[in-house]
Amino acid sequence: MTADIAEAARVLSDATDVTLLAHVNPDADALGSALALGLVLHRRGVAVRVSFGAPDEVPETLRDLDVAGLLVPAAEVPAAPPVLVALDTGSVGRLGPLADRVSTAGVVVVLDHHVSNPRFGHVNVVDDEAEATAVVVLRLLDELGVELDEPVARCIYAGLVTDTRSFRHASSSTHEVAARLLAAGVDAEAVSRPLMDSHPFGYLGMLAKVLGRACLERDAAGGLGLVHAVVTLEDAAGLRPEEVESVVDLVRTASEAEVAAVLKELRPSHWSVSLRAVSRVDVREVAQLLGGGGHRLAAGFTATGPADRVLADLRTALTRTTTP
Ligand code: 5GP
Ligand code: MN
Predict the structure, then answer these.
(1) Which of 169, 274, 275 to mutate to test the pocket of ligand 1 (most atoms within 8 A of CB)?
(2) pTM of the model
(3) 27 Cα nearest atom in ligand 1
(4) How far, in Å, is the centroid of ligand 1 from the Cα of 90?
(5) Helix intervals (H) in the chain
(6) Is 246 helix (H, G, I), strand (E, B) or coil?
């Protein structure tokens, strides 16, 4: 691990042109990590671009992190980048339409915290005990001898506060990391509120519809219980991806269910499914059975077809994972 960080620092110190990629539908950890490292390299005179394969729009809540204008559309990512850094990307496929750059790039550096990462780079800094990729990036910045300032610290904090669910899943050393970020000038409430606690009024109407149709299946998941909800394109019309992504945080509060699932319609009959567990079911295993991945208590997969069939496949995978 230490040797990998030193090697990643060496590659980036020698680079003059660096492309940083987040996974598709980037969250605050993926994009915050990419922008923190990108900003540091940009200030050192490196030609830097930050991008992701899909969708075309940058999530509104993450735009303010890009203080140096480093974000470019996927179409502007070079066909063969000299140095490519993939962040928070547990597998090549999670780069979506930009996945081919892994084979055309000169050097690929992987910075991640997914246990299932196949280490698809030439240099791989993968720590599955890190609560966020942002923690891995901060270690790399320390290796590079970077002095933290507010814009960089804010990007790291955004990844950390979201992936740890407001520091619920953070070790004591990660709380110390948070203290460092606050000391560098981060305003915790100003960063967190737009990311987690602020939605347009239309969100409430969408929730009323979607949560009103939610189902509890007490016998599913080997009797541990499954709660699920479906967000169709019609439900989500006029709202941002941020509103749709946060539905699972409400569905998961149903105390009768160990596992929560939210089916989010991307295109007609194309679904991105979010899975969450309280503590006893490894939803990464479930997601992997269905072609996805993630972490033990937060994972996901994509699926096509009618929602009922996606749910039937999910029940089967849950039974396989929870039956001894
Ligand atoms: P979310 O439900 O917030 O979209 O994703 C939770 C976690 O599951 C993410 O951090 C990511 O690790 C993983 N994940 C979500 N969707 C997919 C997917 O389609 N494929 C893979 N491999 N992992 C996913
Ligand atoms: Mn992450």
Answers:
(1) 274
(2) 0.97
(3) 3
(4) 9
(5) 2-14, 28-43, 101-104, 133-143, 150-163, 172-183, 188-196, 202-212, 233-236, 241-245, 247-251, 283-289, 307-322
(6) coil
| Sequence ranges of the domains in the chain | 2-196, 202-322
Q: Which residue minimizes the CA distance to atom 13 of ligand 1?
A: 294
Question: Which residue's alpha carbon is nearest to atom 1 within ligand 1?
Answer: 274
pLDDT band at residue 324 under the 50/70/90 scheme: confident
Instruction: Measure the N-to-C terminal CA separation of the chain; round to a whole number of Å.
Output: 34
For residue 300, the CA-to-ligand 1 centroid distance in Å is 4
| Side-by-side strand order, sheet with 17-22 | 47-52, 17-22, 83-87, 107-112, 123-126
pLDDT of 121-149, one tens digit each? 999 999 999 999 999 999 999 999 999 99
Distance 227 CA to ligand 2 centre (A): 24
- CATH of the domain spanning 202-322: 3.10.310.30
pLDDT, one tens digit per residue, over 38-71 is 999 999 999 999 999 999 999 999 999 999 999 9
- Class of domain 2-196 as given by CATH: alpha beta
Percentage with pLDDT > 90 across the chain: 99
The C-alpha atoms of residue 33 and residue 106 are separated, in whole angstroms, by 21
